[in-house]
Design goal:
This protein is of the alpha+beta class. It is built from 30 helices and 28 strands. A hairpin with a 2-residue loop joins strand 12 and strand 13.
């Protein structure tokens, strides 16, 4: 590296900076705002609507043209806003680098911008500093690094000389100098940034299905235009006139409001999900959540509290349980379910004293919770002792010296002065500590440690480890004894406990046919124990480690994915591969996470879910959904909302397409019977944009049915018109068209008044649609649970009657009052369709059930 203990000269640093570039994460080429905006017009539905705008203008229907154009532009603006926000992902990742660094330049310690750190620099670090680049530790003094951001590990990692420190992580204890080995995109953080850039944004199932719908509509428009033109030509009409009529019918067939209504309904659902504790960053992600079949979740901070908590204590041959988790003041030591007074047990009291005084963390009580500062392991010990009544500030002690923990000794010791005299207190790895002990504390006093005593303590530590607890031992000795000849006091086993709300949420997921899968960097046993406790892992499931994953081919991983419920000791690259394996297996995958290590997999997943409280900006920007309260249960609520939304979208698509088909077929049937076109263009526009649009939005606000979370997720390849929806739309649309054209032709033949016939047809069409609106709910006659739907339908009916019976509006819409003498044919036209469709369903029910 051509460096020395005091770093580089300014000239050397400048040369390397020019040669290797700045110490920052480079961003990929980002599309311009204009490019993002115009890309919104590439989907087929937008193209069809744009063509409809042009055709309407050519036909002189400028009101139609302006209205359709406004809808197209509004939809494009909504898409632009959503997509533009996602471009902040790489920017947020770059901001994780420390803004400044202290590096040795020209023989002195100098503060420099972090992006000017170069390979070979010697950087000075103290506890709390964010590490500006990758490098090797020099002369570390009891240091440890919090690498949870990068690896998912919940515990700080102790470092010795020569160990690697990584960009973006934090030095949690001690101080050292670091020789920089990699900067910018060559760091581990840079490699993750590269993976994040490589992972693809997946189109949501709803986007795919709406594109499919656009194709169906495009084909339908061409067929309708051709059919009408041919019919008119056969009847001897002017070919050009019939071509223009066919084009106007094609415009009528397009549900102009569909994209806007989908956007509006999704936006309304975003508001409902926000009230439940989640932010939807991409509108279409709401619907995708509803069909998720697998939720890949990180352990630390998502399933667990990211806070170590003592669960078990062993002292003088007695096992104690610790109740209460996290930082709550509730709980304490128990034996056989009964509370224990530690002050009455001499050995337990001495062990708790060692846990408090051989400790670098601090604790303060704030109401019903403790406020702590320090490493998770040490803060857990302070909370344990505080619950038993042992608090450092209340103990008459003074620390005389300290030997900090290091990975070579695996011990920490302090010499303290107590009222009864000076004493050495020690804590560390049980196996190491036991080798340094020759006595053991018992209720009768200290005595020489026998082989049986060692075996008993070893068995207790092994049992805790098998239950995925991290075990520490405690001892005391004479000052100046050099951590030898110690008296063994006991053991404490701790764990990062699961969030209490996770187990019910996991149960709800499984009830809904969704598989939760834990992906973590933690140890296999720890991960399996936590997964089993919350219900993710059950007997017979597979636990796969990163090493085992490396030995599996992609095909083997995909084949085994249905049996794996826990992935342990995995890297960011592994997470990305796991998500892709589930996707290859045909699953729609949700990936939750909070650390930088989760961001590539979160982005690759069909639906990325970031934790809002503990999550990094990188993961939030890469995600589609942000859970504000870091509550796994909130994800389940969002999944439920997604399922409700998809059901509602199918309902209003059924409603809109049936109504549009009814409009077209009513005019087509009238032409086939030799009559004029049944509706004028302005009347069609009135139906499409006012009477169709408002009720369709209200239909999208339907509350959930009770069984929505008791059904399995729908298959990834399930079409928007699955379960006979297309047949229902076609049959019901034809019935609507027959009834409407029937009334039109009847009134025209009886009165010879074209305006009256069109007005009667208009009334029947709108009121039939209002009846069909309540058919689409699929909830029988109960209507009071959606007041918006009642209000929208009432408003539509009111507008219809005003346009037919109010003289100023009659002139605009070409209508005339329909007298009471026509009430019977109008009523028959309105209700004949629902009755005929009900009879058809009754007749065909045996065949439909037999087919199922």
């Amino acid at each position: 590296m051509q460096t020395n203990r005091k770093g580089l000269t300014s000239a050397e640093a400048r040369a390397r900076l020019d040669q290797e570039g700045k110490n920052e994460l480079t961003q990929q080429a980002v599309p311009t705002a204009a490019g993002i905006f115009f890309s919104q017009f590439k989907d087929l539905m937008s193209m069809i609507l744009a063509a409809a705008t042009l055709l309407s203008a050519m036909l002189g229907e400028f009101t139609d043209a302006v209205t359709i154009l406004a809808i197209v532009v509004l939809n494009a603006i909504m898409g632009f806003v959503q997509e533009y926000r996602t471009e902040k992902t790489m920017e947020a990742l770059a901001q994780l680098s420390a803004p400044v660094a202290r590096a040795w330049r020209d023989g002195s310690l100098t503060r420099i911008p972090a992006n000017e750190v170069v390979r070979g620099d010697v950087v000075s670090l103290t506890a709390g500093d964010r590490i500006p680049a990758d490098g090797r530790a020099i002369d570390p003094a009891g240091i440890s690094a919090d690498e949870s951001l990068l690896t998912g590990e919940s515990l700080p990692v102790a470092k010795k000389p020569g160990d690697m420190l990584y960009m973006g992580t934090n030095l949690s204890a001690g101080r050292c100098e670091m020789e920089v080995t990699s900067t910018g995109m060559k760091t581990e953080m840079g490699k993750i940034a590269g993976m994040l850039g490589e992972s693809e944004e997946k189109r949501t199932p709803l986007q795919v299905r709406l594109d499919d719908l656009g194709k169906v509509i495009a084909v339908g428009c061409i067929l309708i235009c051709a059919a009408v033109s041919v019919i008119g030509w056969v009847r001897g009409e002017d070919p050009m006139t019939m071509l223009l009529t066919g084009i106007s019918l094609s415009v009528a067939a397009i549900p102009e409001g569909l994209p806007a209504i989908v956007t509006i309904v999704l936006a309304l659902s975003v508001g409902r999900i926000l009230r439940k504790g989640a932010i939807i960053r991409k509108l279409h992600a709401v619907e995708t959540l509803g069909c998720a079949g697998v939720i890949c979740t990180d352990k630390t901070g998502t399933i667990t509290q990211n806070r170590m908590s003592v669960r078990r204590v062993w002292s003088a041959g007695t096992r104690y349980e610790m109740t209460g988790t996290g930082l709550s003041t509730k709980g304490g030591l128990t034996k056989d379910g009964r509370s224990v007074d530690a002050a009455k047990d001499q050995v337990l009291s001495r062990m708790l004293t060692a846990a408090v005084l051989c400790n670098g963390a601090t604790l303060e009580k704030k109401g019903t919770h403790y406020q702590v500062q320090g490493e998770p392991t040490e803060t857990a010990l302070l909370v344990m002792a505080a619950k038993a009544g042992y608090i450092k500030e209340k103990m008459r002690s003074r620390q005389l010296s300290e030997r900090p923990f290091d990975s070579a000794r695996k011990l920490m010791s302090v010499t303290v002065r107590l009222p009864e005299g000076d004493i050495l207190l020690c804590k560390g790895a049980p196996d190491v500590l036991l080798r340094r002990c020759n006595r053991i504390a018992t209720k009768e006093g200290s005595r020489p440690m026998s082989a049986a005593d060692r075996q008993a303590a070893g068995r207790a530590a092994a049992e805790m480890a098998q239950d995925a607890l991290r075990v520490l031992g405690f001892a005391e000795g004479a000052p100046g004894g050099g951590e030898e000849g110690l008296v063994f006091l006991g053991l404490a086993g701790m764990l990062d406990p699961p969030r209490p709300e996770v187990a019910p949420a996991v149960a709800n997921c499984k009830k809904a046919g969704i598989r939760p899968v834990m992906i973590t960097g933690d140890h296999r046993d720890t991960a399996a124990a936590i997964a089993k406790e919350v219900g993710i892992y059950k007997d017979g499931d597979m636990v796969v480690t990163g090493e085992e994953l490396d030995r599996m081919s992609d095909a083997e991983l995909t084949a085994a994915s249905s049996k794996i419920s826990v992935f342990a000791r995995v890297s960011p690259a592994h997470k990305l591969r796991i998500v892709r394996a589930f996707q290859t297996a045909g699953q729609i995958v949700a990936m939750t996470g909070d650390g930088v290590n989760d961001a590539p997999a979160v982005k690759q997943a069909d639906i990325g879910v970031a934790m809002g409280g503990s999550g990094t900006d990188v993961t939030k920007e890469a995600s589609s959904v942000v859970i504000l309260d870091d509550n796994f249960a909130t994800i389940v609520s969002a999944v439920e909302e997604g399922r409700v939304i998809y059901r509602n979208i199918r309902s209003f698509i059924r409603y809109l397409l049936t109504c549009n088909l009814g409009e077209v077929t009513s005019m087509l049937f009238s032409l086939l019977l030799g009559a004029p076109v049944a509706l004028m263009p302005i009347q069609i526009l009135m139906v499409n944009l006012l009477t169709d649009g408002l009720p369709a939005v209200a239909l999208g606000m339907e509350p959930p049915v009770r069984s929505v979370m008791e059904r399995p997720p729908r298959p990834k390849d399930e079409g928007l018109f699955a379960h006979g929806l297309m047949a229902t739309i076609i049959v019901r649309g034809i019935f609507l068209g027959l009834c409407t054209s029937g009334v039109f032709n009847y009134v025209l033949n009886q009165s010879a008044d074209l305006d009256l016939a069109r007005s009667a047809c208009y009334l029947v069409l709108v009121l039939s649609q209002m009846v069909h609106l309540f058919e689409c709910r699929g909830k029988g006659i109960w209507v009071l649970d959606n007041p918006c739907l009642l209000g929208a339908s009432a408003f539509s009916v009111l507008l219809t009657f005003l346009s037919v019976y109010l003289p100023p509006l009659q002139a605009i819409f070409g209508t005339t009052a329909v007298g009471l003498e026509w009430a019977l044919p109008v009523a028959i036209g309105i209700f004949a369709g629902p009755v005929l469709f009900w009879l058809l369903r009754v007749v065909t029910r045996p065949f439909r059930y037999k087919k199922r």
